[in-house]
Request: fold
Amino acid sequence: MSVQQVLIAGQWRDANQSGTFRADNPATREALPDEFPVSTWADCDEALTAAVTAAAQLRQKSGAQIAAFLEDYAARIESRADDLVATAHAETALPKAPRLADVELPRTTNQLRLGAAAARSGSWAQATIDTQAGIRSCFGPLGPVCVFGPNNFPFAFGSISGGDFAAAIAAGNPVIAKANSSHPGTTRIFAEAAQAASRATEMPAATVQLLYRTSHDDGERLVADPRTGATGYTGSRGAGLKLKQAADTAGKPIYLELSSTNPVVILPGALEERLDAIADDFAGSCLMGTGQFCTNPGIVVLLAGDRTEQFIKAVGERFEQAPVGTLLSKSVAASLESNLSALQEAGAELVVGGGAGTGQGYCRANTLLRTRGETFLANAAALQTEAFGNASLFVVADDIHQAAQLLSHLEGNLTGCIYSHTAGQDDDDYATVADPLRQRVGRLLNDKMPTGVAVSSAMNHGGPYPSTGHPGFTAVGMPAALVRFAMLQSYDNVRPARLPALLQDKNPTGGTWRLVDGQWTTADVG
Amino acid sequence: MSVQQVLIAGQWRDANQSGTFRADNPATREALPDEFPVSTWADCDEALTAAVTAAAQLRQKSGAQIAAFLEDYAARIESRADDLVATAHAETALPKAPRLADVELPRTTNQLRLGAAAARSGSWAQATIDTQAGIRSCFGPLGPVCVFGPNNFPFAFGSISGGDFAAAIAAGNPVIAKANSSHPGTTRIFAEAAQAASRATEMPAATVQLLYRTSHDDGERLVADPRTGATGYTGSRGAGLKLKQAADTAGKPIYLELSSTNPVVILPGALEERLDAIADDFAGSCLMGTGQFCTNPGIVVLLAGDRTEQFIKAVGERFEQAPVGTLLSKSVAASLESNLSALQEAGAELVVGGGAGTGQGYCRANTLLRTRGETFLANAAALQTEAFGNASLFVVADDIHQAAQLLSHLEGNLTGCIYSHTAGQDDDDYATVADPLRQRVGRLLNDKMPTGVAVSSAMNHGGPYPSTGHPGFTAVGMPAALVRFAMLQSYDNVRPARLPALLQDKNPTGGTWRLVDGQWTTADVG
Reply:
């Protein structure tokens, strides 16, 4: 069997390889047939050199030209939907429908089209014009962006199809994609469609490039290379922190989404009012996709009392009755097992589950753990171990003040939720916990589980370290996600004809938002 | 003589000290009388704990309340102007007038008032409202900000008076200021005024705190402490990179301004047209403040030819005729001497200067070096050694293509300038060098030296590494500078009354710019 080819400088060609790998079908635990190369540094080096040329060429393209590429690509994805869904299902065991075909694929093409709209409008660049000082500034493309995609969203966060890809391209940068090793075949199909779209819309040859895998050392070298502009990474904390250190040392921006336990606080009045509905909500959110969401509710804070005991019982029943889903890979299953052990060693007790799953594929029983507020406070770091998968830890606090105290011991998270009585009887308690929770999360929710991540201009899919590497940026939501892959560029006394179109007196599209002398406007200057 | 007190938790008190230091008068090389403490970790620890309390209290203050503090502080600075100018002059040897009294002091109070205006309007927070998705977001304060100020602007970049301070406070954060050891007395006066303003406007006790010096280890511990929100640093690259590593490892944002050689490209037509005027411009810019500006033009790129030789001669004459200024400190003088040696070892040749200065204070002769494009390309890293002070390196390229090539070997810089003929005869050459220069600098100038840094909304006083730590942020210019000290906070389905004022339907000031369903507006929602 021949080894799959990498996409470098616009050509599919044999990799410079140090070895090969195959992905597993997690539902059967058997290796899939296709063989993929592990690239040596030679491939990274060629891709970087080609990307520098592409970056310079892309800087000469208009937002409309970049938009045309993204839209053409989105259409090609739709025309290959069956192939993508079948391949991703085989590689991840995620359900074909509704998940892959009806939810994740439309989300993916929607993101690409929102990226196109952002590129076309140019408003994302925050063009700022000070007519009195003769100074104008905007965000501009930064250079080649390396994207490392996660295992859990083969489409919507994929290295050559997801939000980081769409944002990096829309901001005017070429992308070097590193496939996730658990779904290389899916990534290959995306790369074929992207490359076809790139040719059809006359993009530079190396606008999109694909490597399947590198050594860890070469990955670190890649993000730190002088030719690299920035990196987007979604994945495990351990691997991400190594890349972060390499990029930080080289002074290269890196945007990471690393881990999150997504605390949910459920106040007494909410349970009094709608215990069963919240138990349904929670079990649905926690077990959806076998719990393999970045925003999976991994820690629930409750106040001690009878209703809390009823709630724990109700959730436990739902966990036991719910089917056991298949996990994404052998390593996800192994990590879940060891992290559940770590939580129990740190003082958490099993409510339900904990053992092996009953399925044929990689799996683990739906697992609910509990602990007391006091125990949590005594061992807060270990009890925040992320058990990525179909599991959650309930922390029962003595009272609202202990709840607030334990929230102040939380690491940075992507999300935090508070459920409260709709008629206001929890409002004092809400006030006690909202501020400490707010400062530790990127997105604060009310009366709603965190697993839905709307592609909204107001979304923050980000948060304080270690959920991400910087609390000021979102990975989801156009146009805010673009600015991560841009540099601030000021023009001081630069002659009018030499300014980029975004900064010339005439509004470049007639509808681009620009901050002119302190006022946001779509009008021409002067 | 008693040792000066530190300002912690709203109280002036004796430091927990490991030793003391005194600043020098650089004009006389003699130590000044006041003795200042080197704080131990105990002071840092107390300041951090107090700052966390202040941060929570500040989150309850309105933008208008924060603005009132900044404005009151600015007025108090003006009422202590004579004292500030006299002390800063003694500690830095910078001229009292116009520099300190007529330029830097008004710039400083202007920045504080612009920070106040930004806080009052709230537009800096980029409030974004998606009415359909029920999601709203804005930037919000991040927590205690540590500010390390540089030696060269005791007012405008001072740790308790400068741009980082104004931006951090305006964004709603308390500041822990670490004085620059070369002007502790100046910093003390600012802290007195700030503390008086804080009391008068009923700010939290630890809104502003001051330490004079810590060990390097404690400085690194401070920026990495879990209680710290972010750090602003302006100073030497060596010390800055140590702080950066500590902050990066802890996942704490740090904004650094480290070093810059500020390349200036002078094209042949510009010399043909106005050689003497450019020589005047250049010598004035390079020698102003004895060359001790972050944006001092340290590298000039010229094309080989007779006019270039005339230009070098003309600048050399001006350098020899100009008075030799006093450097900020003994260590600045020692660094300048060793960096000039390093440049010569790397292949640069002296045109004028190079020796000891003739003044009574710390000084060095006005120094002009030159080298060839080929030499620069062979030794690009060493020939980019920043010689902070009254010195510059001219690089004579064989032709415009070699000039473009050597620009592509430049490190990241704050600024880059291109001088060209006003009638367009350099336009082809401009096109050749503009793109490589653009990608390596934060601010691109035409026909203008880089030393003026206007406090403009469109200013970028920032640039790619190693000029700063991140290419997306500016340290000068309101309101953009504020966002460095903020986190992105999204609210998903949060009940209307619980939203911050910035995100409620009613526009909080009647004039706050918000992005509502994709349109910037100052109107109410709905």
